[in-house]
Predict the structure.
Amino acid sequence: MIDHGKRDLVSIEDLSTAEILELFHHADEFRANLTAWTDLCRGTIMATLFFEPSTRTRLSFESAMLRLGGGVITAADEKNTSRSKGESLADTVRVVGGSYADILVVRHPEDGAARVAARYARVPVINGGDGAHEHPTQTLCDLYTLWKEKGRLEGLEVVLCGDLRYSRTIHSFCYALARFGANIVTMPYPGFELPDYVLHRLRRDFGVQTAAASVGDLPGIAGSSNAAAYLTASKPHQLALFTNLTNVEVNRIDAIYMTRAQRERHAGEETSNYPRLSRSTLGAAAAKDARIMHPLPRVDEIDYDIDDDPRSIYFRQAELGVPMRMALMAYLLGKIQLRAARPAALAVMPGIAAGAGLRCRNERCITNNEGVRYLTRDFRLREAESPPVLSCAYCEREIEARFVGHVQSHIVHRYNAAEARRIKPENRVYFESEAQAQAAGFTCQGG
Amino acid sequence: MIDHGKRDLVSIEDLSTAEILELFHHADEFRANLTAWTDLCRGTIMATLFFEPSTRTRLSFESAMLRLGGGVITAADEKNTSRSKGESLADTVRVVGGSYADILVVRHPEDGAARVAARYARVPVINGGDGAHEHPTQTLCDLYTLWKEKGRLEGLEVVLCGDLRYSRTIHSFCYALARFGANIVTMPYPGFELPDYVLHRLRRDFGVQTAAASVGDLPGIAGSSNAAAYLTASKPHQLALFTNLTNVEVNRIDAIYMTRAQRERHAGEETSNYPRLSRSTLGAAAAKDARIMHPLPRVDEIDYDIDDDPRSIYFRQAELGVPMRMALMAYLLGKIQLRAARPAALAVMPGIAAGAGLRCRNERCITNNEGVRYLTRDFRLREAESPPVLSCAYCEREIEARFVGHVQSHIVHRYNAAEARRIKPENRVYFESEAQAQAAGFTCQGG
Amino acid sequence: MIDHGKRDLVSIEDLSTAEILELFHHADEFRANLTAWTDLCRGTIMATLFFEPSTRTRLSFESAMLRLGGGVITAADEKNTSRSKGESLADTVRVVGGSYADILVVRHPEDGAARVAARYARVPVINGGDGAHEHPTQTLCDLYTLWKEKGRLEGLEVVLCGDLRYSRTIHSFCYALARFGANIVTMPYPGFELPDYVLHRLRRDFGVQTAAASVGDLPGIAGSSNAAAYLTASKPHQLALFTNLTNVEVNRIDAIYMTRAQRERHAGEETSNYPRLSRSTLGAAAAKDARIMHPLPRVDEIDYDIDDDPRSIYFRQAELGVPMRMALMAYLLGKIQLRAARPAALAVMPGIAAGAGLRCRNERCITNNEGVRYLTRDFRLREAESPPVLSCAYCEREIEARFVGHVQSHIVHRYNAAEARRIKPENRVYFESEAQAQAAGFTCQGG
């Protein structure tokens, strides 16, 4: 793998907050006259490589590229073609990103697949959804729509409703809302709450504090409001309004973000009383200025008879996706420049730890599936934490490294032992457990 | 639903006769140099949304758009993607017709689906075939080809041969031939005659009179000629030639339009002696100046050894489809203007009758299938008929409204009772039967 | 069928050696700035008609056409659409090559299908792979890559490794290498040797001589080196180096061309010890300046850890495919001219022999499958051989014509009888056997 000096969008974290805001303004410009930009990317080609079908996302990208004047080549259902002959994702993106295309959009069922594509392709890669990991352009479009509707993101009160457990869209959106200083009210369908690892990351990365919440009467989702929680980031915005965070009363809702039950990821859970937004929901006092959002496709969770209500903006989200993706692609292709700085990169800790036995604990991670034949198991290290945390360089699932060994002596210590701290960083090998260390041929001391 | 002030082509009736003729002349211009028009629609995007596969129709539209300089996005087999997550056609066209595309071509297995798409999309919609309902661009291309070959349509003698029962192409073509004053000879494969509702509509809308016909010897289709019928429109052209319409002898055939057995719509009918055109058919005296037409794909009903006969124009039909579709799309996109007037719109009678129990009797209609969750059952009213006729606003299947009630008193009368006629039009509710009225909570009087 | 006066690429033989070399230089020009050619083919449309899926080949062609500024229409999986209604390949290419597209790329599972497409379409047809017959653009790209790497083709030492039996890519490559005067070392996986008919054709058409070979130690493929054979063309280059062709020792390898096991064509053969190139292979002295080639997709036969070795050029092969295909299409579309002469055409002997009972013996040939309904069985005659050889005009499989009859007298003789030679060429009818002649109503004499 070579550093190709190019930009990818694998995670929403790959863009700085300032870059995102600047892209919004470019999207506004594109949107002002959608058909006027056919000279901007003339001669460039985008390839959509979809190993999992998704017409909506694919067509949005393809429309954006055509509106920029570029060409499009499409593999809409890759899992049934070259892959059936056994080709790896790494090989596919090296071929298609060789001379076929100048930018790739990849959708894949395995967590972390987009990072693999980005590493191996020598052209920019955009994540069009990789398993339960991320779907960053959906998040960009959601943020852009809300920003246009409300003129800002900081301090907004956003209700997330429905299946908060299995929706990668919701998870990415949570991180982004926290980053921009919006407050989140979770109103999950019982049993479909935000996963602990999402809450943990919200706390750690954005200082999010959680409290019980009451939202008054929101008919249609009231059944789940007993479990309402209020998530507010302590930074960057100050908690001026909420001195007491034991039970927050939300009287003004800026947006209700509804999601369908992600049945394709369920293990047969019951969803018979799933919440359903209707005229009566919109009649609630708190919803007076709310915007109704949905990533689409909807099933039954929003009544058709509120489609014409001006507060219903789910089709607008889809509409704004095209100019937003135009801005993103024009940027990654170097056709527009931004003044904003990039995000700081976290150091990637390569290889040796993996060689000693560490593996990602996410069974859907590409390192445990398609990539097992050829991928090196890399982790990003957060050594300041206690115990140190290693997050998979592909799917970002975290594991705690409670034991540290020396690459040459093959002696292992607890992470917080003085001997552990004396090992030079470049000689450290990490383990989750003594058993794992022993299996890798290391000897434990001070156990 | 909002009136977007745009033109669609759902039914061939959506274009006036004068518009069609003017489009032929534009198609001629496009055809004169197919590759010279790439500036006309630059910047615009066509989406093909095919919920039922059809390579031929799809590629013809895509070629037409590319030759106009526009872009193309394609969902070639939609039934296996977003739809599997439960998305409605109405939502799909609102998303794709939002900012993704400037014109939509929709093919769908349910009758009336194209009208649903046209109502919900805010950009022009072209029907690429909706169930057994219509396939209007095929009809346009057929008419255009015949018009070019013969220099006119009025007064032509056109033989329709084969499966006349299940072919929507044939039905649309019949209406159009009658409208342009051509005469039709039906030579169906036994058991596959034109359905009664097609004959009824031909009589009512175009004054078509029917007679037995003899066509002399047409080898290959002679077996079915016993059942030959002659259909001639009393308007717009005068029956100068035929004073006695009991048994018309056809000595000059201008075109033989052959169709394959539509096996995918059959209920296991036998087709072993299906007619087959060959050199001997073309050798018949009456066929001397005939043109052999076929909508393609053919199976075995036309011998390969007449492909090179100059009278065989089925590949020409396909060839002319591209310039014809270029003209149509350029028109709907506002890139060319016509002097001809639009057709007069039939008033749509919305809602209340449906609320009282009326439903379309066509079980393949989208209102009884995909749309049952969200569509309002609308009907177009032909009150002048006796009894009044309501035709489904989506699939155009007709039902007779033998009972009329009052929306407030909930009292129902026979349609031809004096009391019925006294109900103000805006207060009328229609029913097919007393039982239906009673089920809707109405009381019958004078029964 | 009409002679449309156009050029096709069905077999690599359809291009002369001089044309190929000139196309290489054009490909170099296109490659120098891939995005600068969008005016060259503006307004033209390429259709990819794939009756067998292949994302890689399809996307390479589509990228090439878009980079030339043309448009693309795609039927990526035709076997599931119109074909299910029973349409023939001949009809499909006549429709799509009518006005839809200006050039066709056809991939089809039956041997000889590309020739059928070329005969019926009135626009240029490129073979994108037809069964086990040919895949000429893959060969062009392979030759181009090797030529760029080594500066020449004549006299190169090329090792072919793996499944040499079922790979059409290997067969086409062999003929082309022989034609350009390269030497071939075959190192097949046991049981997967080059078929006899390939060796026969190499001998006859290029004067190739075969000898046992030793290649020293090539770890990873050593297991198969016992069976190594050395193939060298006696023309056009002189065997200056090899006076003794009993056992050639190869000390310098210019390229190792590895192929995957073509499992989809196997009859359950064992491939557990399939050769595998790795660092140790590249460490061999003879491989010092070798290039590692592979048509891709690979399965396990090349280790990922040699991907970054500068001698590994398999991704470069894919990369160079786009400019090579740009040059080819620009040429066939008349957008660039070559000074080189075309290859001499072999006369096609049409029809009557076939009418008398001859059929192609290749059961995968399109004349025995899809085309049985409509194709005339044509053969190309090589009368100078003894017995005369007839090669199928579609799939090129050869049969020996041991008996010759007279079209009018219906009397048959052995091919080498004096009476046979007295029959005028235009009256000759060929048979494989007496039985075949008798079945066709001919009488044998001198038997």
User: Anything to note?
Assistant: Chain B touches chain C at residues 31, 34-36, 38, 53-56, 59-60, 62-63, 66-67, 72, 74, 76, 260, 264, 296-300, 304, 308, 315-316, 318-323 (CB under 8 Å). The first strand of chain B starts at residue 45 and ends at 50.
